[in-house]
Amino acid sequence: MVAANILPQAIREFRSQRPDLRIPLFDADLNTIMRRVEAGKLDMGLGIFKSVPGVRHMPFSRFSLMVIRAGKDGGLRRASTTWSALNGQTLISLPPSYPHQQLIDEHWAKTCIVWQHGVVVNFLDTQIALVEADEGITIIPSFGLPACRNRKVVMSWLIAPVVNLEFHQISNRGKKLPPGADEFTAFLKTYIARWTGRASIL
After folding, report:
1. Model pLDDT for residues 134-156, shown as the tens digit of each residue
2. Per-residue pLDDT averaged across 60-87, rounded?
3. What whole-number distance in Å separates Cα of residue 49 and Cα of residue 78?
4. Which of 73, 85, 92, 142 is the residue whose CA sits 20 to 30 A from 104?
């Protein structure tokens, strides 16, 4: 989701400021990224990572959970939705091995909300497409906003309570980051905060 919907545009905008820097993008699952950073084959990774020895683990951004609904009902176009308002809804989810799905499941377990179990899929893009087809609702982190804007869906911040998801930047402790890496990281934080429409930077 991030590699396809956020980073390409961010890299293009950054390149207009620093055409001398080349930023190759590697898209993979979190475990593969972690292994390649540990092996020194990637300069840095962005995502939801646990701390491991030998890898720097720096706070990068904070994203909030959002509920996504089919865009057929204009009455549902509101900026925020409470968790309790989801009672009785059919929820399209990801496998429990996904870190942000674990966060969602943990919060559901603490509530008295009853929902219908919808289909379980492997990708956020598939979740959003199924919501657009009115197969149910879904809960995603706000880093999915760019993918939603091209779909006929309604996005609302989940409140009461707000549930945040922490993104981290990882790099190999024994490897110095290349010139320009810190500059790109600072730019990317500002870029993300701009399109989320709220301060997402720690």
Report:
1. 999 999 998 888 888 889 999 99
2. 83
3. 32
4. 73
**Beta bridge pairs of residue 157:** 66, 80
SS3 52: coil
Evaluate the CA torsion angle 69, 75, 79, 85 in order and state its sign: negative
Task: Name the residue type at position 104.
Answer: I
Distance CA 202, CA 195 (A): 16
Contacts of 91 (CB under 8 A, 6+ apart): 115, 116, 117, 118, 136, 137, 138, 139
Say whether 86 sits in a helix, a strand or coil: helix
In sequence order, the 6+-apart residues with CB closer than 8 A to the CB of 186 are none
* CA–CA gap between residue 136 and residue 113 (Å, rounded): 16
State pTM to two decimals: 0.82
End-to-end Cα separation, the chain, in angstroms: 21
- Give residue 199's pLDDT: 35
Structure tokens at 106: 């943990």
